[in-house]
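Need a sequence for this fold. Nothing fancy.
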């Protein structure tokens, strides 16, 4: 009998206050910024100031989010740490590249290069916890977090691990952000209001964040949800998504009518909005449809924020007004489907149940 995978602890550091507060109670939608910055936790409560000074933003947020998740799950240690990240610690990469240019390739200190590799976050968490188990980082664009989930789920099913810390982390760097504005990935400056659902322009409202989860093979009193399934498809046409979702649900013995909420990755980019709008207006017109990137911003592992949100909804049975796309409601939320894609590629489908 393959073991089931339960979400037993969550920790989320995002562009909203998602710690020390009721579920999205203090969230607000920013219409004036095209790049959202993290709401900073008090790092000194989690990391010694001496260590903190040398750490990249993503590492610090990852440490705090993972500490929150483990505290939430009441676990002292885990068997494995699996991280997903799109750009890694991009700020330190920028620092290193800038110093190459500024110093004409001489007298370089390797520190910011060493600290900018994508697997720094997982490594630092392991060092702090003295976790000598499996430690892996997936860098797969917009499905980096889902790749980590699939790995964790397989390990739990095959009984290779009982308790796994899984997370998605990305940070903003000034230079990279400027490049993303140039190539149109981020909405142009001075074109506010930056609305995500009613946008008529291309490019996304960008963000950053770190969300971590403790996945375990047993159900506890504090369990949020069960992770039923995750699927990744690299390329799909707009008209293929619904068929893909139906066969994904069918493989889990479900139909569209069994889904109590659909969480979509609307990010304000008008060029790829139809991937979501098609579903919301047709196949899922009778389903509560939710969105989240107006709160979290768009980034490679933004879907980890959606995973956090869905876990919270299943546990609290409440859907905050601020995340509703339509006005459909359900008496109970038992099964939630998450669908995300970035620029028409890297489609992911994640299924959670109470």
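Here you go.
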């Amino acid at each position: 009998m393959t073991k089931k995978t339960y979400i037993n602890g969550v920790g989320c550091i995002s562009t909203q206050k998602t710690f020390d507060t009721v579920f999205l109670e203090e969230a607000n939608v920013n219409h004036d910024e095209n790049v959202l910055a993290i709401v900073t936790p008090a790092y000194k409560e989690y990391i010694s100031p001496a260590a903190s000074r040398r750490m990249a933003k993503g590492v610090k947020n990852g440490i705090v989010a993972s500490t929150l998740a483990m505290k939430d799950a009441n676990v002292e240690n885990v068997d494995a740490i699996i991280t997903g990240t799109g750009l890694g610690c991009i700020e330190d990469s920028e620092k290193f590249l800038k110093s190459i240019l500024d110093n004409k390739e001489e007298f370089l200190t390797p520190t910011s290069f060493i600290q900018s590799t994508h697997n720094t976050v997982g490594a630092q968490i392991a060092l702090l916890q003295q976790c000598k188990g499996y430690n892996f980082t997936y860098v797969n664009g917009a499905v980096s977090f889902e790749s980590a989930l699939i790995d964790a789920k397989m390990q739990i099913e095959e009984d290779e691990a009982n308790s796994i810390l899984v997370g998605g982390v990305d940070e903003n760097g000034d230079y990279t952000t400027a490049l993303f504005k140039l190539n149109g990935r981020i909405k142009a400056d001075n074109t506010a209001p930056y609305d995500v659902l009613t946008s008529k322009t291309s490019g996304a409202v960008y963000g950053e964040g770190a969300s971590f989860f403790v996945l375990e093979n047993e159900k506890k009193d504090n369990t949020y949800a069960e992770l039923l399934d995750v699927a990744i498809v690299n390329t799909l046409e707009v008209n293929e998504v619904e068929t893909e979702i139906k066969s994904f649900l069918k493989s889990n013995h479900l139909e569209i009518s069994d889904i109590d909420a659909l969480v979509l990755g609307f990010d304000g980019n008008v060029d790829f909005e139809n991937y979501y709008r098609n579903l919301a207006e047709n196949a899922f017109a009778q389903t509560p449809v939710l969105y989240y990137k107006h709160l979290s911003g768009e980034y490679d592992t933004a879907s980890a924020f959606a995973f956090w949100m869905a876990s919270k909804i299943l546990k609290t049975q409440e859907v905050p007004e601020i995340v509703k796309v339509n006005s459909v409601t359900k008496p109970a939320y038992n099964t939630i489907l998450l669908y995300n894609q970035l620029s028409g590629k890297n489609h992911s489908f994640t299924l959670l149940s109470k």
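For context: The first helix runs from residue 49 to 53.
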